[in-house]
């Protein structure tokens, strides 16, 4: 859509371009330069003129002219250099409107690529030129093209990445001529000063190519201008990007760069930049820069985090105060309880200590009184008996402790064993029931009816077997006796099997009883925890065993209650004889576990 209020000068140039032949178009487009130069920079009128030029496709005409062969253009390099200025000025500050995508994605990259291609052509013509005047003129045109490209990149920094990755730019950077090389290096320095961040966004190969060429020019070119520009360029890249500094210092490609830079001549114009670059490449400076960068990043992170935490605490301050008071009160209560508990423990320890001292004193007094009573000849024996009794008591307590410990350790395994036995018993009962059912229903299963052919086949097999295994002749009397013996043995077997079945049932009942007793013992409390009639549950079911236990208990009590002088001549292993008439064992009134009282 054509804009309204178009400048008549632009309309006349557009009409003239449309009507004129192709060879006259470049000269007609040069009239745009006069219009742009007359208009003040930064004014709204200049923006309107640029929009009119773009809307009437005059910028596209300039691109088409620049892409043609320079020998076919009227005016040669003079016209081309002026057209590059017109194109760069028109593209910078232009607002394309609806065609923004085409303008930014196609037209601008194409214009930058055309500028680089024109620079390569000028470089080739400059190298082939023989006269000095011609070289100066071509160098002037090359400077105009590079300035136009720099102006375009200054207005559209997104094109810097495309320019740095372009093959034409790398060819221009590799120029051996001093004037061309210095101009390209200055342009690269100016580009990086505009936006050096695009240097890390280009490909790895392009970045290495640029670094290699700059370092090569620094060491191989005798021109101080190029060496100074290369030094400043390397210094700018190293100071701007920490990654490039690390690459120059640690990469194997630039292993001896610092030593070569240190050997360069001092006292030159760029000696200060050279010293700065050597200092940056030194390990200490690089480490300090890295540490400083990490320190700044850490400080920034800490500042953000502390600010966030402070704001969060300020929001929670009322509830925090309440929680602090609550925690203080609870802590104070806990401290008071702890102090009271410690006092109670100390009092308890003191009481126990007094009880132990009192008991020890009473024990020693008792021992002294007993020693006064004992005959002097029996003192040593009395001491030996006391030592033996003490050793037995210690052994008894130790064995009890060890057995209880082992029992608690084996309790889980005993529980698992009991569960396994229970499962096996249930499985065996189930299998026995299934076998019994099979036996019950086996008699009702009739045999499969034989066919005539099967009967004939079986009869033939029996006859064949009889022919192959002829037996000895046996009389009827012998056969009857043999039959009677077989019947007798069969009857004896069935009678014995019934007895075995009853014995097996008895064994199973005993095993079940033993399993129940083991389960009760495992779940039984200790003697200290037993209360009421719990000990009576573990009385023996056998009358002789109960009578023997009762007799042994009464005997032990009788022996303990006897005076000490009756036990002086006894040994520790001797049995105690008590008359039967002194034992009051009434078996009719003795409770037997598992039986009813008479």
From TrEMBL:
One of its GO terms (molecular function) is protein-macromolecule adaptor activity. Pfam families: IQ. SUPFAM superfamilies: ARM repeat (SSF48371), P-loop containing nucleoside triphosphate hydrolases (SSF52540). The gene is IQCB1. Involved in ciliogenesis. The function in an early step in cilia formation depends on its association with CEP290/NPHP6. Involved in regulation of the BBSome complex integrity, specifically for presence of BBS2 and BBS5 in the complex, and in ciliary targeting of selected BBSome cargos. May play a role in controlling entry of the BBSome complex to cilia possibly implicating CEP290/NPHP6. It is found in: Cytoplasm, Cytoskeleton, Microtubule organizing center, Centrosome. This is IQ calmodulin-binding motif-containing protein 1. One of its GO terms (biological process) is maintenance of animal organ identity. GO terms for cellular component: centrosome; photoreceptor connecting cilium; photoreceptor outer segment. InterPro entries: ARM-type_fold, IQ_motif_EF-hand-BS, IQCB1, P-loop_NTPase. It comes from the Eukaryota. Keywords: Calmodulin-binding, Cilium biogenesis/degradation, Coiled coil, Cytoplasm, Cytoskeleton, Repeat.
């Amino acid at each position: 859509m054509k804009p309204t209020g178009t400048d008549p000068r632009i309309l006349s140039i557009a009409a003239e371009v449309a009507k004129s032949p192709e060879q006259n178009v470049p000269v007609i487009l040069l009239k745009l330069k006069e219009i742009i130069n007359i208009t003040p920079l930064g004014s709204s009128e200049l923006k309107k003129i640029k929009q009119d030029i773009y809307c009437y496709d005059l910028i596209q005409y300039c691109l088409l002219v620049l892409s043609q062969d320079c020998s076919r253009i009227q005016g040669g390099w003079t016209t081309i250099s002026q057209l590059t200025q017109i194109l760069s000025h028109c593209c910078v500050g232009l607002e394309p409107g609806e065609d923004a995508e085409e303008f930014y994605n196609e037209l601008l990259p194409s214009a930058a690529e055309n500028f680089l291609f024109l620079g390569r052509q000028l470089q080739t013509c400059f190298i082939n030129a023989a006269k000095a005047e011609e070289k100066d003129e071509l160098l002037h045109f090359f400077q105009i093209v590079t300035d136009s490209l720099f102006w375009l990149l200054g207005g559209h920094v997104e094109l810097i990445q495309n320019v740095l990755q372009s093959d034409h730019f790398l060819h221009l950077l590799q120029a051996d001529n001093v004037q061309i090389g210095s101009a390209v290096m200055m342009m690269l320095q100016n580009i990086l000063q505009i936006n050096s961040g695009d240097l890390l966004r280009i490909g790895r190969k392009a970045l290495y190519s640029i670094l290699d060429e700059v370092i090569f020019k620094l060491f191989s070119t005798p021109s101080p201008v190029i060496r100074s520009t290369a030094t400043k360029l390397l210094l700018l890249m190293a100071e701007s990007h920490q990654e490039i500094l690390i690459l120059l210092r640690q990469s194997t490609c630039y292993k001896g760069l610092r030593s070569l830079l240190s050997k360069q001549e001092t006292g030159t114009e760029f000696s200060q930049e050279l010293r700065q670059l050597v200092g940056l490449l030194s390990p200490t400076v690089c480490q300090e820069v890295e540490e400083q960068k990490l320190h700044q990043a850490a400080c920034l992170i800490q500042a953000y985090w502390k600010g966030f935490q402070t704001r969060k605490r300020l929001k929670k301050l009322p509830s925090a105060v309440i929680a602090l008071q609550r925690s203080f009160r609870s802590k104070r209560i806990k401290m008071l309880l702890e102090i009271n508990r410690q006092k109670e423990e100390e009092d308890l320890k003191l009481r126990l200590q007094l009880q132990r001292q009192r008991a020890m004193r009473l024990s020693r007094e008792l021992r002294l009184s007993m020693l006064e009573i004992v005959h002097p000849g029996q003192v040593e024996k009395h001491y030996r008996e006391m030592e033996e009794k003490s050793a037995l008591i210690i052994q008894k307590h130790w064995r009890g402790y060890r057995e209880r410990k082992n029992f608690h350790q084996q309790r889980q395994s005993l529980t698992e064993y009991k569960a396994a036995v229970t499962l096996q018993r249930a499985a065996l009962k189930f299998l026995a029931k299934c076998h019994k059912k099979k036996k019950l229903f086996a008699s009702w299963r009739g045999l499969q009816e034989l066919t005539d052919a099967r009967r004939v086949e079986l009869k033939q097999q029996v006859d064949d077997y009889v022919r192959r295994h002829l037996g000895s002749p046996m009389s009827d009397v012998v056969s009857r006796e043999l039959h009677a013996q077989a019947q007798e043995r069969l009857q004896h077997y069935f009678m014995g099997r019934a007895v075995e079945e009853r014995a097996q049932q008895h064994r199973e009942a005993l095993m079940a009883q033993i399993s129940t007793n083991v389960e009760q013992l495992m779940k039984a409390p200790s003697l200290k925890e037993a209360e009421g009639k719990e000990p009576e549950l573990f009385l023996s079911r056998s009358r002789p065993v109960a009578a023997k236990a009762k007799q042994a208990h009464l005997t032990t009590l009788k022996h303990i209650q006897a005076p000490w002088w009756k036990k002086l001549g006894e040994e520790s292993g001797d049995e105690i004889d008590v008359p039967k008439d002194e034992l009051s064992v009434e078996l009719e009134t003795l409770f037997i576990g598992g039986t009813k009282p008479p």
